[in-house]
Amino acid sequence: MVYDVAIIGAGVIGCSLARELSRYRCSVALVEKENDVAMGTTRANSAIIHAGYDPEPGTLMAKYNVEGNRLAGDICEELDVPFRRCGSFVLAFDEGDMKTVRHLYENGLKNGVPGVRVLTAAEVKAMEPNVSDEVAGALYAPSAGIINPWEFALAMAENAVENGVKLVLNFKVSGLEKDGDVFALESESGERLEARFVVNCAGVHSDEVAGMAGDRSFSIDASKGQYYLLDKSQGGLFDHVMFQCPGPLGKGVLVSPTIHGNLIVGPDAIPGSPRDNVGTDRKGLAYVMEHAKKMTGAINFRENIRNFAGLRSQPSTGDFIVGPSEADSHFFNIAGIKSPGLSCAPAIAADVKDMLLKAGVPGEEKENVVRGRRVVRFRDLGDGEKAEVIKKDPAYGRVICRCETITEGEIVACIHSPIPPVSIDGVKRRCNAGMGRCQGGFCGPRVLEILSRELGIPPEQVMKDRAGSYVLLGKTQKGGDR
Amino acid sequence: MYYNVVVIGGGPAGLAAAEEAARDGAGSVLILERDRELGGILNQCIHSGFGLHYFKEQLTGPEYAQRFIDRLSGTGIDVKTDTMVLNITPDKKIYAVSSKDGYMCIEAGAIVLAMGCRERTRGAISIPGERPSGVFTAGAAQRYLNIEGYMCGKKVLILGSGDIGLIMARRMTLEGAEVKAVVELMPYSNGLKRNIAQCLNDYDIPLYLSHTVTDIRGKTRLEQAVVSEVDEHFVPIPGTETVFDVDTLLLSVGLIPENEVSKTAGVEIDRRTNGAVVSEDMMTGVEGIFACGNVLHVHDLVDFVTHEAEKAGKGAAEYIKNKGVPGGEGRVTRLLNGQFVGYTVPQKVHTERVDKFIEVLFRVKNVVNNAVVLVKAGDDVLMSTKRQQMLPAEMEKLILPKKVFDAAAGRDIEITVVKEDEAK
Fold this sequence. Notes:
- Chain A is built from 12 helices and 21 strands.
- Chain A has helices at residues 12-21, 60-79, 95-111, 121-127, 149-162, 206-212, 282-295, 341-358, 383-392, 408-415, 424-431, 444-455, and strands at residues 2-8, 28-31, 48-49, 83-84, 88-92, 117-120, 137-141, 145-147, 166-168, 173-179, 182-187, 192-200, 220-230, 241-244, 254-257, 263-266, 304-315, 321-324, 331-335, 399-401, 406-407.
- In chain A, the strands form 5 sheets. In chain A, strands 1, 2, 9, 10, 11, 12, 18 and 19 form an 8-stranded mixed beta sheet that branches.
- In chain A, helix 1 (12-21) runs parallel beside helix 8 (341-358).
- The relative contact order of chain A is 0.15.
- Chain B is an alpha/beta fold.
- Chain B folds into 3 domains: 2-118 and 256-329, FAD/NAD(P)-binding domain; 121-253, FAD/NAD(P)-binding domain; 335-423, Immunoglobulin-like, CATH 2.60.40.
- Chain B has 9 helices and 29 strands.
- At the A-B interface, strand 17, helix 9 and helix 12 of A face strand 7, helix 3 and strand 14 of B.
């Protein structure tokens, strides 16, 4: 078949757009090179929905941020995605920083950010006692929030799939040909997929994909950022997202509670990083720790449970690239989606959806669109609800992940969701099993066993994460019979 | 639901505590176990060497556990397996779930915490690099091999010379894997001497002291681990890198008592042991809540866990029989850590309740040769004892007779280690 639209890349941008389009009578394929959605930048970032005071007025970033922030709240409510508008601070430590804070305040007013104000040092200390005594003042933006970014993308992708979008995983686009008005996408392994419109949401690879369509108007630089994720023992140190004043390489090192109750610290910024390497290094991690210590002395880094790194797409144009390509009016780019891309995603998707319908994608609205999504999170239930849910399904009485209190019921439910996970980390991204302080040391083998049982595949075929990340390499001499 | 004593955890500590509590007349006793079977981590420890002290014979882990499981029959002790405790309150209500019993609240006269410990992970020591599969804690690998029956690696490097890592070096070798080396950050091994001999030396597996893993490479499965030598501040020395082509990295870099449930009841945690602060009867700072085994502090040998758990079980039984702390709180002597001493268990002693003596377990922070252990109150040396060699990896035991507490006359007691020549 020939799809009306093929979206290349199932990160938060591709998933947002897929969900937008899934309400219309057009056929959509969401094409992803990995074995799951949200496998790139979407799963390794600061997990913040920004208020919108950072971007300079007049940029696309400014245009989409405030609206994206508002929409994100609505979508999270509708799709049951954890999100909390905790507010953010930009801390100033000297008069130079205060100048920046006042400039950001002006930006905030121009960009229409609700409730921004400049706080004195005393006001900051009253709201966040763990901030360094050196603080001189801060910008406060109550509408900033913290989110689970991969669940945000996943929930939108699930909703899109439920409404008829075809998700094509393990399809790495290696070529793009056009015959008449039909694009043919070729995968590395020789598959083909045809579509009348193509939207390039390929993240750090979006310049490569644009190049396949003859569009060489921009290039992407991958800027790596590394993080610490600390135990929940540190999660209560701050109530708000704590930024430092932004520098030429980005927003700098932040300290923030996460939606899961941990504390996140990072990132650094290493421009010119390879596109296929999200490894951490000693130097970068030391940089992050040192810069966090400028903001607060309260963090116990011995409580670290995980380090990770993500890549940001820095476009050669300096701003987001959104819209039809000059090379082909049916080839759209959503590229260079650096920070605040996560925050902007819903607004970009709504805008590009309108552009596509105007350009000829069938725009008749579907009837009976599935709108909601409800997830049982056993840990968050009240006593009576816990009893009730176990009575209905005893699997909710068996705790598999002890650190995060995740039950077998939740794991089985996610394996049978619209986009079934095929890996231990896929289960982790859906229901948090293995997210905690033991990092899956105890529950990993049990999750593997449940995946094998529920998917009907041998244990050796269960991956840790992406395709090829084997966990088991065979049986022991007398093993594997159970 | 009410029980006089509820034991949380059915591993070696919980089993011994429950049995002892019942034997001492505690009345109704319940064990709550999160796994499907009793025995705890012993079930995956299929090597031998357990029970040398307690049973005076060599047993495997499952055999050692089974002796205690067998002894439960006829004691009237109730057991709920596949049951996870979510939280407990200071007035000793236990909230737990299981598939069979649903969500339940169990009231207890006394609680014994026996939840064991967990392994430190890659994140805890911030090993940089990529995030391929093939990086396991040694205990997780042990489970895959010994419980599930699957190999999780063929070419193996082990970071950390903790006992589980050493045991897994031998185990994986016997299953046909090639174990290239064990790498240890410290200038000395963190495992028992007998494990170094029997698990590494006997199989020609090299041990690199003062080395660590400084990079992990591989997009999907682990391909390479980079090992560097470290200086005296544990900082990697540039230019000393060696690349190991391995598909598996096992981490045996320490154990942490698992006290998240203890904290929900407000139990005070000693930051040196990461376990509860206890007195000589193993009672925590919360009246009627006791702790023992690896949830209290990490032990080298299960035999010592059993011994400690029996004290906790006895303490819980006494607490029930006396309807409170026997003889009241009374005077409390604190045990202070002097030179080289990392921690002591117990941390405090009810002076008036010392009958003949109490046992103190402690660890040194460094290797000390020709050592003298001094027990002091202020500047007065109340007792001294020689030790040829003291190792951080091996727990030390000290018997403090009643006369030491009499001589301290209400002062806190300090345990300190000096070198023999300093002692003169």
